[in-house]
Amino acid sequence: MKRMLAALAAVAFSAAAQAETYNLTMASSHPTVLPWVGQLSTLVVGESNNRLEAMGSEDRIEWTEAYGGSLYGFKDTLEAVGDGLTDAGWVGTLWEGSKMPLQNMTYFTPFVSDDLVATLKIMNELHREVPALQKAWDDQNVVFLGASGVETYHLLTNFPVNSLKDLEGRKILAPGPSANWIKHLGAVPVNGALPTYYNQIQTGVADGMVVILTGAFPNKHYEVAPYVTLVGIGAQMTGGLGINKDVWDGLSDDVKNVLTELGEEYTVAHAEEVMARYQTFLGKLPDAGATVTTLPAEDVVAWADGLPNLAKDWSDANAGKGADEVLQAYMAKVRDAGLEPRIDWTQR
Known about the structure:
Layout: H1 2-18, E1 21-27, H2 35-54, E2 60-66, H3 77-82, E3 88-91, H4 116-129, H5 131-138, E4 142-150, E5 154-157, E6 171-173, E7 188-190, H6 194-202, E8 208-211, H7 213-216, E9 227-230, E10 236-244, H8 245-249, H9 253-284, E11 291-294, H10 297-305, H11 310-317, H12 323-336
Parallel strand pairs: 1-2, 1-3, 6-7, 6-8, 9-11
Antiparallel strand pairs: 3-10, 4-10, 5-8, 5-9
Helix pairs in contact: 2-9, 4-5, 4-9, 4-12
C-alpha cells in the first residue's frame, strides 16, 4: 500500500511539475468597442482557460490586456506583435500594403461578396492551404490565428445620387486602394480616415465618401453627408489576430490547440457582431435624418463592369509572392460557396 501511495504521489507530482502558466499580453491599437478588438477580450482571453480546463489540461494563461493604443498606435500593429511589444493582438494588414500585399487582396477584388462571415471564413481557409499567405506572416515573425474584416461599402454624400452620372467631378473620400473603385466613374478620390471625414465634408474638402456604415454611423457622418446610397462594393479583410512566433514556439500543444480553435471562432464571432451592428445602424439612419436609397441595379452593373482589371494589376505587381495562386484559390472558393460574385476576377 505504501508503495502504491508513493507511486501515485510521484505521478501527481510529475503532472503538476509539467503544468505551465504562461504570462501573455493581448493588445490592440483600437478600443474594445470595435468588434474585432472586443472579441479578443471577451472570447479569446475570456474563454482560453475555460477551454484548457475543459480539455483536462493543467496549463493556464495569465493574461494582461492593453487596448485602445495604450502600447502602440494603429500604424505599428504588425511590428508590435512581430517584435514582441505585445505577445498577441490585432494586426491591421490594411496598412501593410508593402509588407503584406497578399492579405490586402480583397481591396483589389471589389464586388465579389457582401457576406462578411463567408468571406473571412474563406480567408482563414486560404491561410491554412496556401503557403504564400502563411509565409507573409512568418516573414514578420507572427503566427496568424484568424482573420478580421469589415462589412460592405456604400456611398454617403451631401448630394443625391440617382445614377452614376451624379458622381462625375465630385470629390469622394476613398483612401488607399478604394480610390481605384471610383476613378473610372469620373469622381475625384480624396484621402482621409474615418475620424477626419466629418470635418473634410463640412469644410468642403470632399462631397462624399465610400464608407462602411459601422464606421460612418458612430461618427455621425450622416449629419454632413445625409444621402446614403446603398451599393454593395463588398466585404473586406482588414487584418487578423496574430501572436508572436517566438512566443508561439514556446507554448505547449494544449495552449496552441486552444488558441488555434479560438482564432477560428474569433473570426466568426466578430464578423457576426459587425453584421448585426450594420443592420442596426442601417435601420436607424432614416430616424437620424438620412435619406437612404439603393443605387439602381443597372448602375451597379455599370460600376462593376467599368472597373479596370484591379486584380490583374495587383497580381502582376506581386507575382513573385504568389499572388496569382491566391487569387485563383480565392475565386474558386467563392464560387464553391455559392456566393455569386458580381465580378469573377479570374475571368477578366
